[in-house]
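User: Structure with zinc ion, tokens only please.
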Amino acid sequence: MTCCNDIVGPFDWYHRLLARLTPVANFDENADGWFDGMDRIPARYAGGRLIGDKVNAIVLHSGVSGNRIAPYFANSKRKVSANFEVTKDGDCVQCVPFTRKAWHAGKWNGRSIGIEHQGPNDAPPSEIQAQASLELIRSLLLKFPRIQTIVSHAAIQANRTDPKHYRWDLLEGLGCELVY
Ligand SMILES: [Zn+2]
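Assistant:
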């Protein structure tokens, strides 16, 4: 798919979304570890160097409230961050470059990519948000071929319940172990 400007119909929004997030072959990172063509809201805090060869998992999150998360990462004095936020309206922003560890999942930080989803955690994601998350994950699987596991924050850390209503059904068929 190269250009979808002339597509009309009920899935117009989705094709525009795909045009923005794919083709993945061109979904390249620049030398600084940022996806070209994706909006950036750099997080205030990130850890040391992330070694690409060690990345074998994706950790999924949801915000507790319905507020945007990337601006919080940019401004909060708490040492928290994630690599991406997928918003309720299907936008995707990068907060931490691939050259740095994001601080989202304790001891998993050094071997995972963290994706936050605008919440609230108690409500299901919007359809366009679920699709955007799927496309982002597809892109990350091509970029990091060693990723074999997609895990919820709830499954790896006590007292966490996010992302409570994630559309795991959309991830079936990706060839990854899904743990939630
Ligand atoms: Zn979380």
